[in-house]
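Feature request, filed as a ticket because there's no other form

It would be nice if the structure record came with a short human-readable summary line next to the tokens. Right now we just get the raw output. Example of a typical job, pasted below so the devs can see what we mean:
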Amino acid sequence: MLFFLHMTRGRRNAFSSAGLVGALFFLTSATPGLAAQVLAQMDIAVPPPSLLRLSITAACGDDGAVFKLVNRGQKWPRTGMLRLYYTDDNTLIGERRLRLADNQRVSFKVKHKIMDGRPVGVWVKPDWYQRAFNLDAAMTCK
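Raw output as currently delivered:
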């Protein structure tokens, strides 16, 4: 079992969760301080995050901009933030926490009074992985 735990200096190794549990059980019963050292040097192998697969449309209506979101991927593992911005200076207008099921649809309207002739955009920020800021949809209604 010790050959499984061999670490090279300056290199991180990935282990499966079953192997990790067995190794930690062995280490904590034999040498408690060694388990902490091993954990500090390894990465746990995990599947990649479920990335967002959204379909977002925007259109101008009588009252303002209408945004429609459809989750084209799987059910979200955790909540995310739906954020609304003025796109000319990236000022946050508002945000709402949501969690979408597969194929769930969400729509909302941004009234002309709020838009005030400025372009608005939507960005979805998931809580389960880091995503660079880039507006997912934008609309200007006059």
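Something like this underneath would help us a lot:
The longest strand covers residues 64-71.
Helices lie at 17-30, 32-41, 112-115.
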